[in-house]
Amino acid sequence: ELSKAEDITNMLSQDITTQHLLFASLGSAEYMEFVLKNPLNVPQTVTIHSDDPELSVITCTEECRHFKELTKTSTRLEENMFHVEDGAPGPKVYLRPKESVLIPLKYQSFLCDHALAFQSANGVIVSRQQTQHGAKWYVSALSKPPTLFQQVTFKAEDSELMAVLRVNVEPTPHVVDQTFRLYHPELCFLKKAIRLPPWHDPPGRPGHLKAERLDATTGVSVRCSDPNIVCQTRTLVPGEPRDIYLKVPGSPSPNIKMFFVMVFTDKWMAAPSQIWQFYVHFLERVDVSCVAGQKSRQSLVLRGKQAVRKVRCYSSHPQEIKVDPEGVFVLPPAAVQEVHMKVQPWRAGSRFFYLNAVDVEHRRLINSWLVCLNIYRPVLSKTFEVHVPVSGERGCSKKISYTNPYTSRRTFLLRSDHPDLLQFKEDRFQIGGGESYSIGLRFAPSRSSGSVDILVYVNSLEEKTEETFSVKVNYT
């Protein structure tokens, strides 16, 4: 007797509830139709309400016609069926007594569980499928993703429930067409513009995922899986390329922010033509000013955490960046370790290097540095011009003279910014004070004519540049 009323209410609620299973992927719209019937003998104005905007009613007749043609649905299309009011919980439809209508619905989600994609050690698989036009990447999890529940209620004029549609959404893996990996200083906004390529749809792509050729007349819209990221595109005049603009909020180092960008080329955004995956690495910035060919030193501070770690530093350009300590060292908890970075670039300009401190036991990133180099061109002491025959089998050998400017005996090192084109007879030589030495140069053969400027650095044992020679090589 105590549970009779509740049990009857639950049974009546289950009787008017329709269950629907839906398999959906990121950015793709899934179309469905729900049969709504007025069981009463009087006309009713039914209000349709969805508890989540991802599951919505298609009120536009043109959009409904588009999805019917896309899914090859042969049911009858009714025009101007819904009445939409500002501030209302949802659209309204008028039903005559015992009348039945088809309510068009669309489920489409642009959000993604980004935390799941980070946990590669906890069961995430990144698999690759080779197609005719390249590789496609699929992201999936060993553990089954949680089922999402969406509900749509249909209420009569007296707010009584007439029907309930419960949609069980099973997330499925999506295709990743391109992957971008960006590096940016920590706690700074990343502003990036990416130009859209004029891609074509591959033959093996499903019909509803066909991509149109991108030009200035194609309507392009973009969506981002992270609501905190600004992602937009601008309409340009015909003939101009189209760009996608991103604005990503910064995070502390060494955090990595991952998100997806979906590019749509159809008006109603039925399915993304391309899905791009972004990894933004936020690093601690280090500014270094140096001279090309000369070694510069910079000290970095690495702070210990709560446990003892075995750490090793890795650089993106090991030929130009050396780290001391070079091998594995122990980082005690709450301690401060000084890491000495030795930079020796060979070409002038602005460049970016990356230095990572890694826990070698747990393979975990501890800290990252973004090394921003401002490299100046060295002062040239002498300029030489050499002619090398094209298609020579053994190349060409030349000699240039160098005089020790010091009064004591010194040892010098020879360096070049083009080691693939120029080799030295001896990389190291020793001469007395005021004496001269002939530097033997060996130029590699070439199969094409042209000219290239090669810088020869005469450095001390501390890698300080004593003199710089410019050799213009003409392949004739």
Can you describe what's shown?
- This protein is mostly beta strands and 476 residues long.
- The chain folds into four domains: 13-171, Immunoglobulin-like, CATH 2.60.40.10; 178-198 and 216-282, Immunoglobulin-like (Sandwich); 292-376, Immunoglobulin-like (Sandwich), CATH 2.60.40; 382-475, Immunoglobulins (Immunoglobulin-like, Sandwich).
- It contains three helices and 34 strands.
- The chain has helices at 4-15, 61-71, 114-118, and strands at residues 17-24, 30-37, 44-50, 55-57, 82-83, 92-95, 100-107, 124-131, 134-141, 148-155, 161-171, 175-176, 178-185, 190-195, 221-224, 230-233, 243-248, 256-264, 274-291, 296-303, 309-315, 321-324, 329-331, 336-343, 349-359, 364-376, 382-388, 396-403, 410-416, 422-424, 428-431, 436-443, 450-459, 465-475.
- Strands 13, 15, 18, 19, 21, 23, 25 and 26 form an eight-stranded mixed sheet that branches.
- Strand 25 (349-359) and strand 26 form a beta hairpin.
- The longest helix is centred in the first third of the chain and has 12 residues, at 4-15.
- The radius of gyration is 34 Å and the shape is elongated.
- The model is unreliable at 115-143 and 201-213 (pLDDT under 50).
- Residues 18-173, 180-281, 293-374, 381-475 form the NPHP4 Ig-like domain.
- This is Nephrocystin 4.
- Pfam families: Ig_NPH4_3rd (PF26015), Ig_NPHP4_1st (PF26190), Ig_NPHP4_2nd (PF26189), Ig_NPHP4_4th (PF26187).
- It comes from Tetraodon nigroviridis (Spotted green pufferfish).
